[in-house]
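User: I'm designing a mutation panel for NifU-like protein and want to avoid disrupting the core. Could you give me a predicted structure to guide residue selection? Please restate the sequence first so the numbering is unambiguous.

Assistant: Good idea. Sequence first, for numbering, then the predicted structure tokens:
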Amino acid sequence: MALEDIYTELIGEHSRNPENKRHLPHATCALKGHNPSCGDEITLELQIEDGIVKDASFTGVGCAISQASTDIMIDLIRGQKVEKAKELAEKFIGMIKREITDESELEELDEALALQNVSNMPARVKCAVLAWHTLDNALEDEEKK
């Protein structure tokens, strides 16, 4: 199976069966992200305690790419320090914008690397980064509290 096929399968699996798509009862912050160009709309819920993303989930609607990207992102940030979650968000956005191309630097994005080829589809870039921008904004809001 080609790497591209594995990635396509991974995105399909995360969009069809997003494990993190649910309401988070103990959320300490929630932020809505919206992509007017395609109608994707998510609400990211985070439970942050002692500077750590204890848990996260999302609700909302969107295309396969935005749903998969959100689900994969949550798997990646759960249990991470807030600073690390922000760093991962910046790295992912950098990858999609082609500002970061060094494979070794991108390795820690793990399954999120499956979305790297979205950078070749300008119309889909906003779908892939919606959750990551929402996360970045939510974490900034938390820091201001």
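For picking mutation sites, this is relevant: Residues 122-144 form the longest helix (23 residues). The CA atoms of residues 52 and 81 lie 4 Å apart.
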